[in-house]
Amino acid sequence: MNDHYADPLREAAAHGMQKVVQVAPTAAAAVQVWLHMKAQRVREQAELERQTADALRAKQRAAHRAARLQWLPANDPAWLRTADLLRVSRAWGAALPYSTSDPGAERALLRCESRLRELHPYAMNRYDRLRVEGHAPEAAMREVTPLFAREPRPRTGYPAPVRPQLPPVVRLAQEDFPHTIDKVIEACGSTRTSAGATAKPARTATLNRHP
Questions:
Q1: In the predicted model, what is the mean pLDDT of residues 81-85?
Q2: Cα(165)–Cα(159) distance, integer angstroms
Q3: Is 71 in contact with 108 (CB distance < 8 Å)?
């Protein structure tokens, strides 16, 4: 009679090791496939970013060339002397984005501003004040743009002409303020007096015609 019995724990461990030996190559192959796919995705992402960057640079170069065609004439003194407000403004706007990186654009920007001061000193005076206060060129120009629709050289400081037939109150209103209350009362009184003096002969004439 055989009294030897197999150890179930040892047999289970041996069976498990056998399974591990069989599965290990498959797991290693799966890991290799996953790493390969990950590396492929990284390469594809890098290629996509490179293509995007190339397309963006090409677009920026095209925009620079188009803008250069607009602001380049501003570096020609003959063109600048005859350019009107609209053409100078367009050249200034085209040169502005490249004025910090392109010396030609910076020169065009400054020359356009000089020409705008000749064409519309009223608006450009306000622009220069804003620049001194620290505003960026685009912000300052955006604020003064409505001023270009006004008179470029307004005449200020001239008093309104005084008409002799106007009453004293109107003439007083045309003068510089403030007025004292005495002047206002005196002007109103003289107006009433002159009005009464004008109305009295008219009443007398009416009574004479209709006794």
A1: 94
A2: 17
A3: yes
Q: Which of 95, 142, 97, 99 is nearest to 123 (CA)?
A: 142
High-pLDDT (> 70) share of the chain, %? 61
Confidence of residue 29 (pLDDT cuts 50, 70, 90): confident
Other C-beta atoms closer than 10 Å to the C-beta of 123 total 22
92, 95, 194, 209 from 204: Cα distances, Å: 74, 79, 16, 9
Nearest CA-CA partner of 64 in 108, 98, 104, 107: 98
CA terminus-to-terminus distance, the chain: 173
pTM, to two decimals: 0.55
Cis peptide before 178 (omega within 30 of 0): yes
- Token pair for residue 104? 């030609």
Tokens of 109: 């920007």
Asked if pLDDT for residue 181 goes beyond 60, the answer is no
* Residue 159 CB-half CA count within 13 A: 10
Bigger pLDDT: 34 or 186? 34
Q: Alpha-carbon Rg of the chain, whole angstroms? A: 45
CA distances from 35 to 19, 30, 40, 180 (A): 24, 9, 9, 94
Convert the pLDDT of each residue in 128-150 to its tens digit.
999 999 999 999 999 999 999 99
- Show the tokens assigned to 110: 């400054």
